[in-house]
Inverse folding.
């Protein structure tokens, strides 16, 4: 029996046995006494450890066409944004997201940019307070100078969109910064923008990329997501690029068709895509794709994938979703690294000119 088959059996049993909110648990936080203090203005840019040659390589990348060589020889040496994974809401569906996280690291993404720095978990629960996740993303950005990416599965996809609405100020006018080492709010609702050195509120921040899969109406039945009833399919301006994936005839998402009301749409300038995945894909175990790394033919197809390109090969795993998400992750890894290099050159170049 394959690992995916065993996982599917386990999850299908759990899906019908554990439907109450709060089933998913997460490990206790182990505080890190070496956690860095709040950065000072422009200290992040001064600390960027890239030389001129690597910066030129980063700036020369075409974000839409990132090859395996680009990942190994350039992006692997470049700063990488945090990826915030949000798993589905029925225990132990988080195991599928662990498999997805390991797929990303197997493709070349740094593991320490995915796993939680405090307790080392791979993903967040959709039952966490969305304001806490927003405050955590602000904490990451203040220290990295790279806007995080978010990927949500099932009810975790609803939570990811909810975080975007948190940033847009739809629920509260202020959001506290959330420290991952203490697992608690800090006594402030603003950060020092690492690229400009200017203090700014958490509300109004944006992320680079968000994708959700299987985030349909069923997730709105849970009390913690009732506030998203009129908001789920409306994508605010707090993300640059958003992709909503739907499995054809997905009974778990209660979205058997893709009519207009079930399509994600921007309510401003965000770039929004809707992608329909094959009906053969399993809603519950869809992110469990780590074993794709062992199939050289499928891995080669994923590496060479471009949206609107060749149809996916036949596979019992979600190869089309894997390829499309990995393409976007590489793209925004490159874009955020380029943004950081340009900000470093602009800010530190101006400071140097001022000294002269």
């Amino acid at each position: 029996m394959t690992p995916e088959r065993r996982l599917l059996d386990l999850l299908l049993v759990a899906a019908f046995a554990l439907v109450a909110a709060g089933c998913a648990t997460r490990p206790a936080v182990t505080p890190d006494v070496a956690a860095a203090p709040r950065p000072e203005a422009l200290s992040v840019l001064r600390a960027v450890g890239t030389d001129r040659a690597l910066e030129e390589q980063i700036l020369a990348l075409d974000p839409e066409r990132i090859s395996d060589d680009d990942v190994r020889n350039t992006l692997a040496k470049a700063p990488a944004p945090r990826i915030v994974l949000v798993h589905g809401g029925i225990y132990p569906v988080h195991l599928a997201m662990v498999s997805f996280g390991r797929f990303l690291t197997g493709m070349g993404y740094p593991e320490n940019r995915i796993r939680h720095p405090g307790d080392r978990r791979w993903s967040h629960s959709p039952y966490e307070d969305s304001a806490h996740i927003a405050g955590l993303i602000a904490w990451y950005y203040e220290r990295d100078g790279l806007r995080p990416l978010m990927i949500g599965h099932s009810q975790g996809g609803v939570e990811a969109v909810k975080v975007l609405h948190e940033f847009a100020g739809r629920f509260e006018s202020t959001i506290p910064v959330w420290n991952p080492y203490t697992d608690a709010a800090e006594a402030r609702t603003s950060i020092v923008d690492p690229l400009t050195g200017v203090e700014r509120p958490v509300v109004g921040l944006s992320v680079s990329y968000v994708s959700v899969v299987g985030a349909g109406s069923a997730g709105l039945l849970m009390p913690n997501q009732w506030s998203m009833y009129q908001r789920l399919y409306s994508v605010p301006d707090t993300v640059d690029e958003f992709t909503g994936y739907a499995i054809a005839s997905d009974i778990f998402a209660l979205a058997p068709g893709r009519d207009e009301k079930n399509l994600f749409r921007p309510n401003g300038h965000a770039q929004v895509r809707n992608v329909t995945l094959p009906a053969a894909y399993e809603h519950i175990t869809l992110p469990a794709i780590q074993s794709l790394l062992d199939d050289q033919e499928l891995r080669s197809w994923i590496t060479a994938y471009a949206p609107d390109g060749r149809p996916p090969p036949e596979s019992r795993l979600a190869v089309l979703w894997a390829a499309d998400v990995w393409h976007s992750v590489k793209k925004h890894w490159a874009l955020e690294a380029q943004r950081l290099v340009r900000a470093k050159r602009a800010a530190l170049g101006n400071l140097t000119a001022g000294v002269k």
The domain at 3-23+81-304 is CATH 3.40.50 (Rossmann fold). Residues 319-355 form the longest helix (37 residues). Confidence is low (pLDDT under 50) at residues 1-34, 352-356.
